[in-house]
């Protein structure tokens, strides 16, 4: 799910931000999850059919055919296409599929970065094409080391660390912050406010899945990943990556994971209040509030104890702000 749906990378949130407020995101999430699972199953059937075909042709076990990493796509599968009827056709179809797959993934990931910069610096909206060009050029330059002589080892480092451990950390933080700090009851209330009765009855299953099962499974996977961790550097294997390669991998993990506690600390330090408890409390209060008016959203800015807004219902004292911070699943009714 982390790779096929880009969970934890922001792509889904970015794409969802383009939807109208009343869009049935609940139905969309079910459709996307089902299609993603079906696509993964279809790809699995295709992959293991080819591996089984090669194993039968070579009269060896499947485990002796598989080569991990990029070798599976650039060695094993091309070799299989050469032994099929009309090999040139299958080779063209395979690499076209591989190209479109990589291009589609890159568009989603790059767009997530572009949306952040264009929202943070609005003047870039009028220069969106230039921003996309600069972003593509930066990605191209970053990708050059991966096609050098040691590119495969560098790719394995990024694949083992950046695309695995760090994403698990961020997904756990995301689940805990939304379902426990913001609160699952408020999250469901927001969905019902957006969709009305289209959400149906979100009972204990959905609450348990969001609050207990998903964070629990992610945390379990993270623990297993850390316990079974083996450095890529092998002193007895001269062809393995050097020891600094593992250090580079953990530096990549730290560069992304530490962003969360660092900026959380900055928010607490800058928050109003005289005690640490007050600062933490204030830092949990959002900078922006939203209210629906005429089927559209109005944005207001929270500043101290007042709210400035073109919507009169939001102007005034914020004495009820404590209702916006709860313990999630076990909290009182809003």
Summarize the structure.
The chain has 334 residues and is mostly helical. The protein has helices at residues 11-16, 25-58, 71-82, 87-120, 128-143, 151-195, 204-227, 243-257, 259-270, 276-283, and strands at residues 288-293, 296-303, 306-308, 316-317.
Structural description of this entry:
- The protein is 62% helix and 6% strand.
- It is built from 10 helices and 4 strands.
- A 4-stranded antiparallel beta sheet has the order 1-2-3-4, with no helix packed on it.
- A hairpin with a 7-residue loop joins strand 3 (306-308) and strand 4 (316-317).
- The radius of gyration is 24 Å and the shape is globular.
- It starts with 10 loop residues before the first helix and ends in a 17-residue tail after the last strand.
The dominant shape is globular
**Total beta strands:** 4
The helix tally amounts to: 10
Distance between the termini: 33 Å
Task: Look at the helices and sheets and give the structural class.
Answer: mainly alpha
Order of helical and strand elements: HHHHHHHHHHEEEE
Beta-strand residue fraction: 5-15%
C-alpha Rg, in Å?
24 Å
Strand order of the largest sheet: 1-2-3-4
On the 0 to 100 scale, the average pLDDT is 77
- Fraction of residues in helix: 55-70%
